[in-house]
Amino acid sequence: MSNIKKTALIIPLGHVGLALASSLADTLTIPLFFYFLRKRIGNIGMKNSLNIFIKSFTSSVVMGVVVYFVFKYSSMTLAGGKLYTLLSMIISAVAGIAVYFVFMIIMKVKEIDFFTDIIKNVWRKISGSNKL
Question: I need a surface site. Which of 59, 81, 85, 111 has the fewest CB within 10 A?
């Protein structure tokens, strides 16, 4: 069934249709997966997962808006060839990563502590200090 829908979207839309079809298939499959998983093994902490999802979604939306405007501004400022477009993309990606992590930390998502600990350990190794 999923392949029929994918084919119906791929033919008229090309590679954009492939991405759209895959996203739609996953969007429909994941809730079913969780439903049957919960039915089979019982409570799996869906309330906590939903809380994390909402916080992650909120951070993603803010990140998307920031990346859009940073890219728009930096590409106008660095108007030129492909190298300047690449530089604008790198600047927006770095800004997006920073905004996402800051928002996840502000919203106190405990799972982000894993990544902040990794960053702190790498920083300690690079700088040679035990501070942080």
Answer: 81
pLDDT digits (tens, 9 = 90+) for 13-36: 565 666 777 777 778 888 888 888
Helices assigned H by DSSP within the chain:
2-13, 15-41, 46-77, 82-106, 112-127
Q: Which two tokens stand for residue 17?
A: 């249709």
pLDDT band per the 50, 70, 90 thresholds, residue 52: confident
Look up the pTM and report it: 0.62
Which amino acid belongs to residue 46? M
Q: Residue 30: which domain range? A: 1-44
126 Cα distance to chain centroid: 27
What region does 14 belong to: left with phi over 0, alpha with psi -120 to 50, or beta? Answer: left
| 73 lies in the same domain as 111 | yes
C-alpha–C-alpha distance, residues 89 and 79, integer Å: 13
Is 80 exceeded by the pLDDT of residue 124?
A: yes
- The number of distinct structural domains making up the chain is 2
Same-domain check for residues 59 and 21: no
- The CA-based diameter of the chain, rounded to the nearest angstrom, is 57
